[in-house]
Write a structure and sequence with these properties.
globular; MetI-like fold; two-stranded antiparallel sheet; 74% helix; transmembrane; 2 strands; mainly alpha; membrane
Length: 273
């Protein structure tokens, strides 16, 4: 494409400078504070962070919800992507449009919709009281379940899109051939569909898991102070406690968790059976 390497580097140089000055350098300065103290470089910020029971609880809760959201999105996403891929081209385009439609709506608006559904006077509580399943409205908001549902609907389209793009590359005759050879649907999925869509699962899993880890609006609205997660705790450390060292530690933990998840998914995808 380019007559020499210099032309390609010259075109990439403005973007590289922009990323270096406005992203990499500021983030690097912020994260370096987590390793600094009056005595020099140290890991005391991390030991102090994990020595507090509240921080341990928040860390484990964030990890648990991230795994649950990514795992549930993968299960539902495979079913949805398989169904969409087998539709006619016209129907597939229309359903795909419905899948990406939520991405065009503000996450704030989508999260506030759950208040209408899960609030004390919301749809779910009205149905429970009306059917006699509960005497009084029950608390559904400010629970881990509410945060889980909000994060799941927030990032589900990303998983479906990733799996659908991978599933469309599967040859049309592979699955019928496996069925003719006697494979049941369980075997078809684990021996045919899953190996051929591993790259889509890695991309979708990374997007959903890291999104669930780093999302702030949904945990803040649906979880509040009762269901703290690392991102809401980070906000409190900066804007309430003015503790930038702890905030840097949390930011580094989130980055490590995101990269670790991506590496694990890639390792699983490339593992030989």
């Amino acid at each position: 494409m380019f007559s020499n390497t210099r032309e390609g580097l010259a075109l990439a140089l403005p973007a590289a400078i922009f990323a270096l000055l406005l992203f990499i350098l500021p983030v690097g300065i912020l994260l370096s504070e987590a390793f600094q103290s009056d005595a020099g470089w140290t890991l005391s910020g991390y030991t102090d962070f994990f020595s507090k029971p509240l921080n341990q609880t928040v860390f484990l809760r964030t990890l648990k919800l991230g795994v649950l959201v990514a795992g549930t999105a993968a299960v539902i996403g495979y079913a949805a992507a398989f169904s969409i891929s087998n539709l006619s081209p016209v129907a597939r385009g229309r359903v795909f449009g419905l899948v990406i439609l939520p991405l065009m709506i503000s996450p704030v608006a989508r999260t506030y919709a759950w208040i209408v559904i899960l609030g004390r006077t919301g749809i779910v509580n009205d149905a429970l009281v009306g059917l006699g399943l509960a005497d009084t409205p029950i608390r559904l908001l400010f629970t881990e379940t509410a945060v889980f549902l909000g994060l799941l609907q927030l990032f589900m389209p990303l998983m479906i899109i990733s799996l659908l793009s991978a599933m469309e590359n599967i040859p049309r005759d592979v699955i019928p051939a496996a069925r003719v050879l006697g494979a049941n649907w369980f075997q078809v999925f684990f021996r045919v569909i899953l190996p051929l869509t591993k790259e889509g699962l890695v991309v979708g899993g990374t997007l959903v898991f890291t999104g669930a880890l780093t999302a702030y609006i949904t945990p803040a609205i649906l979880g509040g102070s009762k269901v703290l997660m690392l991102e809401t705790l980070l906000y409190q450390q900066v804007n309430v406690s003015n503790d930038f060292v702890s905030a840097s530690v949390i930011a580094m933990i989130l980055i490590i968790m995101s990269f670790t998840a991506n590496l694990l998914l890639k390792r699983i995808a490339t593992a030989r059976k």
